[in-house]
Amino acid sequence: MTGEEESKKIIENQEEEEEEEEETNNPAATPLDGEGAAKKKKKKKNNNKKKKKTAAPQSEPPRVGITKRFPNGIYPVGEEQEYVGENSYRTTSAEKRELERLTHEDPETTYSDIRRAAEAHRDVRQYVQRSIKPGMSLTEIAEMVEDGTRACVEEDGLSSGVGFPTGVNINDCAAHFTPNAGDKTILGQNDVLKIDIGIHVNGRILDSAFTLNFEPTYNNLLEAVKAATNAGVKGAGIDVRLGELGGEIQEVMESYEVDVNGTTYPVKAIRNLCGHTIDKYKIHGGKSVPIVNNGDPTKMEEGEYYAIETFGSTGRGYVSDQGVCSHYARNKDAPHVPLRTQSAKSLLKVIDKNFGTLPFCRRYLDRLGESRYLLALNNLVDAGIVTDYPPLHDIKGSMTAQFEHTILLRPTVKEVVSRGSDY
């Protein structure tokens, strides 16, 4: 049986079980005659072998859409963590439970979209982690991620698709790099690779990242950053002050050190990178989650959702713009500026139609058939309509790592929506 046939069979079994449940729970259903009852009894007997409903399997590489894997439209809930301290009452509060129910049913605040994106993220990233090997080009890796993303989330214009360009950042480059056309960079055995993947459904962006290495020298660097991210996730919550949370993250991160050929390097939190709230169709919302204690008294609030991401480095713990830009995003608050060239006007229409305020990269413009657009793109940047995001590097020779989760501050519990068996 092929993967597709197996998937169809499981979906059929789910539908049969749902029909039986409906009949069982509906006492007003029309009674069956003798022959019909016998058939139904036989059918139920055969179905007794099925212990529970299961999702349709994913293919390899991942190409089965999440709505086909979960045809009932109910997607897995992420890891739920109870609030602690003054907020511990929320778990059992009748008022908060009712608010949770209303929030879930409101199409403007539903959790279903972000959970669908999260399930696509898990399917794609787990395949990618098994598949990436030294010797692959960074372009090959980015396209592997994006092909899986588009298939699993069932890309449909601005309704669902890639949330931002896939980050494939190696060594001292911490963020904001994805290959442009013609990039020939090859992943090496000694490289430390950060993969940052964004997937959205109706503008609800799931943002999660991980780091891979292929020999053990920098194991402690990866462990430090993963532990710091988990500390940030654990410490986050309603009414938590962002600066204090950054201090908790920093304390965990900087308790680690890395030995490289007999030289010991302390792991440093990259102080000018941070996590952030996520808004609809906008990856960076209005609040930042520092990874050092910067004294910010701003509090997290009920109903917000955050990307908790941390970056560690064996260098100076500070990044700066370096290299050719690949990442761009439409500025949501850009003032109306008259554009002088027709090429800039035409490119802006393409950006608005295909990306809106979602980040994009030059490869995505190439994919749409755009050519000779660099001058027009630079005009949009100069006008403040589009913002460019160059690659961010620590000092040459250093190594950086990143881990990241998306969390929802629900009324009753905190949900780590991107949590998986991998990290």
TrEMBL record:
Highest taxon in the source lineage: Eukaryota
Biased composition annotated in UniProt, kind: Basic residues: 39-54
Binding positions for substrate per the UniProt entry: H176, H284
Compartment(s) where it occurs, according to its Swiss-Prot or TrEMBL record: Cytoplasm
EC number(s) from the headed UniProt entry: 3.4.11.18
Compositional bias per record (Basic and acidic residues), positions renumbered to this chain: 1-12
Biological processes per GO annotation: proteolysis
CDD domains, sorted: MetAP2 (cd01088)
Described function: Cotranslationally removes the N-terminal methionine from nascent proteins. The N-terminal methionine is often cleaved when the second residue in the primary sequence is small and uncharged (Met-Ala-, Cys, Gly, Pro, Ser, Thr, or Val).
UniProt name for this protein: Methionine aminopeptidase 2
Species this protein is from: Wallemia mellicola
